[in-house]
Amino acid sequence: MNNQTTYIDVVLPVPIEQSFTYHLPDHIDKEGLIGCRVIVQFGNRKLYTGLVKIIHYNQPAYETKPIELVLDNSPIISPLLFPFWEWIAAYYMCSEGEVMKAALPTGLKLESQTNVSLTKDWVEDEKLTPTEESVFQFLYTQESASIQQINKLTKRSNAYPVIKSLLQKGAIQVEERVKEKTRPKTITHIKIVDRLKTEAEMEVAFAELGRAKKQLELLMWLINDLNFFATTNTKSIAKKEVLLKSKTSESVLKGLSERGYIEIFDIEVDRLKEKLQTKNISELNIHQNKALNQIHKSFIDKNVTLLHGVTASGKTEIYIKLIEEQLKAGKQVLYLLPEIALTSQIIDRLTAVFGKKAGIYHSKFNDPERVEIWNKVLDFETTDNPKYQLILGARSSLFLPYKNLGLVIVDEEHETSYKQFDPSPRYNARDAAVVLANLHKAKVLMGTATPSFESFFNTKLGKYGYVKLDQRHHDIALPEIVITDLSLAYKRKQMKSYFTPELFAEMENALANKEQIILFQNRRGFSPFIQCKSCGWIPKCKNCDVSLTYHKYYNNLQCHYCGYSQNLPSECDNCHSTNVQTKGFGTQKIEDELKILFPEVKIARLDVDATRSKTGYENIIEKFTSGKTQILVGTQMITKGLDFDNVNVVGILNADNLLNFPDFRSFER
């Protein structure tokens, strides 16, 4: 058996419905290889990062290639991820490679980079063209270069013909190098060298630095700031802090280092902000306790339970109690939310209770941060005091390498944001969470005030347990809902910009009473479309054939489906009339109108355009929660279960437009 060739089946991030077989070179040990990353050649030149799925001795019908390199000493995914990926690939009709591509953070997927270098001892037989000569000279000084660097040098989008010609002449050689995408985050620190231990040794150093006054001043400052003689000389200080506090320069630091009096080194640090435990778990009221007991009973014979709780009934407090039980039992918990906008508010509540055990994971984190969270979840069972035992995240957090999942909470389970549309896999996180929990033998709690039809139907069939919580916290009355007739207000000329007289009066009262307002309009941008008044021409997307939305901030037209954009036309493309006007209104236009109507009031907008950065959501919501913003205008992001204490008025503008939304679920919504 030992003489047999060992084969491995590798999952590659390509849209082909199969795994690929390679053979294992004799010098590579197969023990513990399943779940590790390997570098393999795919096609003639391209190198990919693949994941080892199966080790076997069955030779395939084709000649196999060897794996190039094993990247990991231990698996980077948990054993249950492969069956989970298989289910997603089969159910949502895609390849396992596409699931792998979506699941792994980009930082764990190495990329192949073509590297070009000169051939040693090359003798010029054929004359080089001017372009080839410039590339040759560039490589002579650089030693090697990437394709991108050669493209830039030759001012071509593709310098392949030049590279091919030099290859044929034997002047250069090409190789594929694997490039690691993430490195640990480090902070440069400074400390006084170990040999300066006593005051006598310091006196000698001071004498040697007599003429270098600035270096002497810096050394004395470090001695005082680090309290050097009162503590061990291993204490260090961040370089950034030294430059700021001592008001010295890089050159002075470098000089002191070259003389051998200070040591400059890097310390690896955590990229993720952590909040410490600050308060105890709140006690539940009678209705919440009853619901919690019913959930426990339901979990005895049902794996999934639907918690149907009216708005402000205190569902989050029930979640916290269930999370606490699982964490005490040494289990992991996944808390799924439909929008990133919700995570910043709820994480504050959860970290106040669970401290460092709670963490966030979503697509707004950069690659190194996502890799760091991935590794923290992966190391769950190997650390005595695990961080990130509770993960709060959007749909992508399903793919983290959980090892001992005990509970999955799907908050606002009715939300369509749980559905991934593009790219593949086009999965529904709510449904996939049930399968993931089943693989871990964990329980699923779905919470909502308005259950989706399919979840409610599953409770009627007996597949899911059902718990109802119909009492609001502290028995607060439900808000009054007023429907106003827009067409009548327009006919009577009573509209204030886009606001009915009733809504405008309520807004004025709320502002007078120092209360806050939320306005919902399910269209971002300034205007849904522009139109020529002369001939009716409307500019459309060249890819999707839908009308383009006008964005005033960028002064362009954008397609909200494919991302295509073009400059705002000064005249009609059809009849060349300059009478082109905006039609309808989006969140940007409402924001502009509010600034005219209420010039003294602080107004904020919450939509995709306003929250491009990682902390965009958090900053807008924090300002509204703290009362720095009085009016918040937004798209569906503001309808996802956010809690604000001081909101008195919620205006839904053009509510009937939601019924005409091009979606088969529009009436259900």
Describe this structure in words.
This protein is an alpha/beta fold. It folds into six domains: 7-108, 3-Layer(aba) Sandwich (GIY-YIG endonuclease); 111-179, Orthogonal Bundle (Arc Repressor Mutant, subunit A); 186-268, no CATH class; 286-473, P-loop containing nucleotide triphosphate hydrolases (Rossmann fold, 3-Layer(aba) Sandwich); 479-526 and 585-669, Rossmann fold (3-Layer(aba) Sandwich); 530-574, no CATH class. Helix content is 31%, strand content 20%. It contains 19 helices and 27 strands. The strands form seven sheets. A seven-stranded parallel beta sheet has the order 14-15-13-16-17-12-18, with helices on both faces. The chain has a five-stranded antiparallel beta sheet with strand order 2-1-4-3-5. The protein has a four-stranded parallel beta sheet with strand order 25-26-19-27, with helices on both faces. Helix 1 packs across helix 2 (96-103). The protein is globular and about 90 Å long. It starts with 6 loop residues before the first strand and ends in a 17-residue tail after the last strand. 34% of the residues are buried. The model is unreliable at 274-278 (pLDDT under 50).
